[in-house]
Amino acid sequence: MKKCKISPATLARTAALALALTNQVLSATGHRVLPIESAELEQLVSTGLTIATALVSWWKNNSFTPEAIEADDFLCQLKDHK
Question: Cα separation of 41 and 18, whole Å?
């Protein structure tokens, strides 16, 4: 039986979501995150980044547990045999 690993894409999506959420919280608490003069533009960019990242992270299958990764591997094997 092969050792199950978290995919790099899952880690990248999770890191992007964490960054977007951190950016959103900092922006909401009044901390300047992006070096932009207009606070309104900064809020729009921050919100857009959070929404885009959340949607991509939510849409994709993010398998973290060994059982979920093993199930993903099994699904790939089933797809390969068609």
Answer: 21
